[in-house]
Design brief:
163 residues; mainly alpha; 82% helix
Length: 163
């Protein structure tokens, strides 16, 4: 039983890392779009920094570094080349967004295969939400979580690479 709990906890951490990575890629895409607009209008960095209250170049570098860290944490090293292609500054905004979407879409497609019950139990585990746990016996909650994570892992592997 302890081994199953440890395995379930590990799968929950992997799922949380994947969700965090998905959010980071989206944030980076928004920042990259903003940086593209700044380059297009050839706005002085000082003016933009005054408007934003911080240096956008530094902020964007921090966002990309965070995305790279989360890619590693989510065991998504394989997408770093795709991210590098999206980060290329000599492409137009539409192509840049398409390249970021190519990274985001497989993650979202996998997460969207989960049923509402799977999402409910995984969310409860990730956020330490006791409401669902109180309505179920501990063994029932653990089994539902194990099954939901197994379905997520199977879906990911069938579409992409091991989770």
């Amino acid at each position: 039983m302890a081994r199953a709990a440890t395995s379930t906890e590990q799968a929950a951490r992997e799922t949380a890392a994947l969700v965090d990575f998905d959010a980071a890629v989206f944030d980076e895409m928004v920042w990259a779009a903003m940086m593209s607009v700044i380059r297009t209008i050839d706005a002085p960095t000082e003016l933009i920094a005054t408007f934003l209250g911080s240096d956008p170049t530094t902020d964007f570098a921090e966002v990309t570094a965070r995305t790279d860290r989360l890619a590693t944490a989510a065991d998504q090293i394989g997408v770093l080349d795709d991210l590098a292609a999206a980060r290329t500054t000599d492409i137009d905004l539409r192509e840049m967004v398409e390249r970021y979407q190519a990274v985001i879409d497989p993650i979202r497609a996998t997460l969207e295969t989960l049923g509402s019950g799977d999402i409910e139990v995984i969310s409860a585990a990730l956020t330490d939400d006791d409401e669902l746990r109180r309505t179920l016996a501990p063994a029932t909650f653990r089994k539902r979580l194990e099954r939901a994570l197994a379905r997520l892992r199977t879906s990911w592997r069938s579409r992409h690479e091991p989770l």
